[in-house]
Amino acid sequence: MKFTKAHSLQAIANLLQCEYIGNATFEVLGMNEIHVVEKGDIVFVDHPKYYEKALNSAATIILINKKVVCPEGKALLISDDPFRDFNKLTNHFKPFIHSSVSIAPTAQIGEGTIIQPNVFVGNHVLIGENCLIHPNVCIYDHTVIGDNVIIHAGTVLGADAFYYKKRETGFDQLVSGGRVVIKDNVGIGALCTIDKGVTGDTTIGEGTKLDNQVHIGHDTIIGKKCLIASQTGIAGCVIIEDEVTIWGQVGTTSGITIGTKAVIMGQTGVTKSVAGGKSYFGTPIQESREILKQLANIKKIPDILTKLK
After folding, report:
1. Predicted pLDDT of residue 31
2. How far apart are CA 59 and CA 37, in angstroms?
3. N or C end: fewer C-beta atoms under 10 angstroms in the chain?
């Protein structure tokens, strides 16, 4: 998430009421999670296990809960609770704005787009040309939709990321300040849910088609011309490359990559990254030809045992 203008390190520290290490005029351009940070971004870290990764990341401002040696060319924000303060920044720079109308006045809707009754379109939503939005679709703030997109009834674009920190008092939610971006010629079935990124974008690539009841987690990137069948659940921070086919009731773990033109057969649990150009099946996931060989061999066991008698 980029800020609308650059801020100084001192200004951010004053906002958080925390100590800083670095030049007071050091430029802060935005804030992001570790996997999408860029120069000028703030990243937060609150566990020693991840200190080194955060300090050596592309981020140039590290919001951290311990005084450590500051890498050259970077700055530190010292906080007793980086998770809380990261939320404070999100709420400050991208606050929730309630709406009292079905289509926000700041939304932009392209020529030829049809919006059926009972659709909600939030603040600063961009919808391209010649789209068809069916009844009871909910499009949260800042969502971007390209041209020639069809969205069927009951779908929700832009709900919060499923991201929590366990406390003694319960679970604190990491505030989501990202977006959902739908490219041109995408088809989305009924009752799909696509969560926005925590600070970045959840993206559905050009020409991809989702069946009914598909869930896409936060910050996931789906490539071009993919097919995803019903009751599939894609976790957060997944990369699905171009022309992947995923059949029904597939589930994935987070942070994995599915390669170009891979085929994931129904009811598979995608427990790890898989290469493109192959077919996969089972839980844990295996190449389908290997698991089919195993199943064929299992069927031979009764005959083998009979011969051994």
Report:
1. 97
2. 5
3. C
